[in-house]
Amino acid sequence: MSLLQIAWRNFCHRSLSSILTTISLGLGVGLVVLVLAVYGVISDAFTRTASVGYNLVVGPKGSPLQLTLNSVFYLSQPIENLPYDYYMEFFSQPERAEMVKRFGGNPELGERPGIFAPYVTGGYVIPLALGDYFGEFRVVGTTPDFFEKLRYGPNVDQPFSFSAGRALQGFSAEHSYFEAVVGSRVAGEMNVGVGDVIHPTHGAPTGHDHELGFTIVGVMNPTGTPNDRAAFVNLEGFYLMDGHAKPIENDEADATATANSETETEDPAADIDAESEVEATDYKLISIPQREVTSILVRNGNMMFGPGMQVAINEGIRAQAVAPIGEINKLMDAIVGPLLTALLLITLITCFVAAVGILVAIYNSMNDRRRDIAVMRALGARRETVTTIIVIESFLVAIIGAALGWVLAHGAIALYSERIEQQTGVRVGFFSTSNYELLILPLILTLSLIAALLPAFSAYRTDVASNLQK
Amino acid sequence: MTEILAITNLVKTFSQPGGGALTVLNIPSLKVAVGEQVALIGKSGGGKTTLLHLIAGLLVPDEGSIRIAKTEITRLSEQGRDRFRAGSIGYVFQTFNLMPAFTALENVKLGMTFGSGRRDSSRAGDLLERVGLADRAHYRPAQLSVGQQQRVAIARALAGSPKILLADEPTANVDPVSAENVLELIRNTCREEQVAMLMVTHDMEIASRFDRVEELDTINLALTGSHPD
Fold it and tell me: How close does chain B come to A450, measured CA to CA in Å?
C-alpha cells in the first residue's frame, strides 16, 4: 500500500469530519476564485471601456475624473458645457466655414483654422451633449461619427453593430433630426425597439419630458462598454429640444439672425431631396452661439500629438483634456483596486480559517489514531513515514477542497456568464481562469502544510509502546 | 543449533513518578533457535510485554544485548530499528490492533508496506487464504468476528516474511474454541514459514504445546531479586 492510499483510507474513515472540513475549505477557495474572477471581469470591463478608440476627452475645467466619469461612463453630473466655438477649434478652416454657413454665427469663426486642428489631422473629433435621461439611462446627443468612427473591443477594432436597425443619421427624410439609437441594456430594460419613440426627460430621470420625441432607428449589440446603457440622439435634435439652446444676448442674437438669413438657403439638408428639405426647414437649426457641447472625444491623427495637444488645452483657461485610460487606471487604483484587494484579503482570511479547520479536525482525530500510528510504527513505519501520512491527509483535504471550490466558483460564473456578458460585455465561461488562480493551489497547499504541522508533530512524538497497550 | 534470538544481560528500568528508577527486566540470557517456538509465561505485570517491545526495537534497553539473526539491534539507530523491524519481526498483539479504516486485505498489505524489500502483492491474498479468510478479504475489522480479526492480525504479522514472530497473548481475548483455532493456526503457519516464535502467555496448557517454555519469573532477576554473579 502506498502512503497516499493509507492517507486516503484515513480521510474516508473519518468521512463526516473530512467532508465538512473539505467543504469549509472549498467554500473559502470558491470565494477567493469568485473574487479573482470578479476582479478579472472588472479589470477587463475597465480596459474595454478605456479602449474606445479616442485618446483624449476634452471638457470644461474641473475634475478630470468627473469629466471621465460623465463622458466615458455616462455617470456623475457633467461639470459644465463648452461653447461650440471651442469645439470648432479642432477643425480646419474649410470645415469651420462650413459650420458657420450651416448654423449661423460670427463669420470670422470661419476665416481661420482651429487652433487644435493640426493635432487632429487624420483623426476625429466627436461632440457629446449630456444632461437628459431616458428612464435611468443617459441620453447622449452626438453626431453619426460616433457610430462610424469609434471602435471598441480589446484591440479597438470592432465597429458598433446593431441587433436591429441602423446608426442614426445627421438628417433623414423619415425622422428629420430626431433619430435615436439605444444601447442593448437600454433596449432590454426599457423594453423599447426600433420604431418606438422616446421622450427624454430634462436634467434628471425625474425631470419633465421633452415634447420632442426621438424615433429609435437602431438597437446596438452588447459591447461591454457604458454605451450599452445609453440612448444616443442626434445632436441637432438634442439642441432643438426646449431648454437646450443657450440663451444669448440681443446683439449676439441679431448677429446670428443676420448670419442665418445669409445662409438660410444653405440648409444641411440641401444635398438631399427637395421633399426632405421642406421637412428639415420645419426645424430651424440653432446658431453657433446658442450651441454648447458637454465634452469632446478626440483621437489624434498621430498619437504622438496627443500629449502636446493635452498640454496646449490644459494651459488654456477654458478647457481641460484628460486621457481616459489614465483616469480609469487612477480610478481603478484609487477605489476599485483597494476595494477588491480588501475583498480578496477577507476571502483569504476565510481560507486561513478553513486551514485552521483542517488543523482542528486532524488534531482532534489524533487522539483516536494514536493507536493506529503506534501499530504502523510497530509494523516498521518510521516516524517520518507516519508524519508524511498526516501531511498527505492534510494535502488531500486541501486539494479536494481547492478543486471543489474552483468547480463551485466556476460553476457559478458559468451560470451567470450570460448576465455578466450583458452587463459588462466580458465573456466568461466555466474554464475562464485568471493567472492569479494558479497561485491558489500552492497557497492552499502551503496553508494545509502549516495546518498539518502540529498534528504531524504529534504523530511524530507518539509513544509506540504505551499506545500499543491502550 | 543456530540462534535467531540471543539476549544477554538485558536490563530495562523505568523512572517512577515519585522519583527513582524501577528495574522491570534483568535477564542474563534468553535464546530462541531458528524455527523454534518458545512460550514465555509469567504473571501479569512481570515485564512480558516490555520484553517483546525490547526485542521488537520499540523500546531501548538500558544495558545488555539483543541479537536477532546476527544483528545487534541495540546498536541500531531508531530508523535502523524501524527498518529492521519491518523486514525481520512480526508482531501479533493481544488486542489485534487492526486498522479500522482498512479492509482485511489492506490490513495484511500494511504488514509489508514499510519494509524495504520487494513487495509481492499476491502474498497478502495468499496469507488471507491460509488463515481461511479469503472470502472476507474486503471486510472491515468491525465486520469480522473476534477470532477472524485475530487471524487477520496473524496474516499481517507474517506478511513481511519475518524471521521471528512475537505474539503477545494472542488468545487472551478470544473464546476458547477460537483460541484453539488461533493457536493452531499461528503455530502451523510459523512452522510452514519457518519462522521462529516467541509467544507470551499466562496459560500453562497453551505453553505446554510449545517446543520450549521459559518462565519469566525465573529468568528475570528483577523479579527474583537475585543478582547475576
Answer: 25
A210 contact B CB<8A: no
pLDDT at A366: 80
* Overall pTM surpassing 0.90 (yes/no): no
CB of A346 within 8 Å of a chain B CB? The answer is no
Q: Are residues A408 and A264 in the same domain?
A: no
Sequence-ordered list of residues with C-beta below 8 angstroms from that of A354, at least 6 positions apart, any chain:
A21, A24, A25, A27, A28, A29, A401
Cα A460 to Cα A294: distance, rounded to the nearest angstrom: 73
Nearest beta carbon to residue B102 from set A9, A385, A469: A9
Judge if A60 and A183 occupy the same domain.
yes
Let me know whether A204 and A317 are in one domain. Answer: yes
Q: What is the pLDDT of residue A370?
A: 86
Task: List pLDDT tens digits, range A356-380.
Answer: 888 888 888 887 788 888 889 988 8
User: Final residue of a domain: which of A289, A322, A355?
Assistant: A322
What is the average pLDDT across A429-439?
Answer: 79
For chain A, state the CA radius of gyration: 32
- Whether residue A51 lies inside any domain: the answer is no
Q: Are residues A62 and A33 in the same domain?
A: no
Q: By C-alpha distance, which of A269, A198, A267 is closest to A238? A: A198
Per-residue pLDDT, A281: 52
Cβ contact, residue pair B97, A385, below 8 Å = no
**Is B25 in contact with B220 (CB distance < 8 Å)?**
yes
Residues spanned by the domain of A290: 56-322
Specify whether the CB–CB gap between A314 and A277 falls below 8 A.
no
A418: Cβ contacts below 8 Å, ≥ 6 apart: none
Where chain B has pLDDT below 50, the residues are: 227-229
Is residue A299 predicted with pLDDT exceeding 80?
Answer: yes
Tell me the C-alpha distance between A391 and A329, whole Å.
43
Is 90 exceeded by the pLDDT of residue A124? yes
- Whether residues A75 and A156 share a domain: the answer is yes
Q: Is A206 on the interface with B (CB under 8 A)?
A: no
Q: How many CB atoms lie within 10 A of CB B71?
A: 16
Label residue A272 by pLDDT band (50, 70, 90): very low
- The H-or-E segment that residue B65 falls in is strand B63-68
Closest CB from B49, B56, B79 relative to A469: B49
Domain count of chain A? 2
Of A273, A297, A322, the residue at which a domain comes to its end is A322
User: Does the pLDDT at position A78 exceed 80?
Assistant: no
Residue B7 to residue B9: CA distance in whole angstroms = 7
Residue A276 banded pLDDT, cuts 50, 70, 90: very low
- Contact criterion met (CB < 8 Å) for A383 and B100: no
A9 shares its domain with A101: no
In angstroms, the CA B61 to CA A213 distance is 102
A467–chain B Cβ distance below 8 A for any pair: no
- The whole-number average pLDDT for the span A26-36 is 86
Residue of A469, A150, A246 lying closest to B50 (CA atoms): A469
Please determine, for residue A151, whether its predicted confidence score (pLDDT) is greater than 70: yes
My answer on whether A14 and A82 are in the same domain is no
Same domain, A296 and A200: yes
| pLDDT at residue A278, rounded to an integer | 40
Is A158 a domain residue? yes
Nearest CA in chain A to B50: A465
Look at residue A427 and tell me whether its pLDDT is greater than 80.
Answer: no
Q: With an 8 Å Cβ cutoff, are A382 and B82 in contact?
A: yes
The pLDDT assigned to A279 comes to 47
Q: Is residue A425 assigned to a domain?
A: yes
Domains in chain B: ranges and CATH: 3-224 (3.40.50.300)
Paired residues of B213 in beta bridges: B39
Does residue A273 belong to any structural domain of this protein? yes
From chain B residues 64-103, the ones with a CB under 8 A of any chain A CB are: 78-79, 82-83, 85-87, 91, 93, 97, 99-102
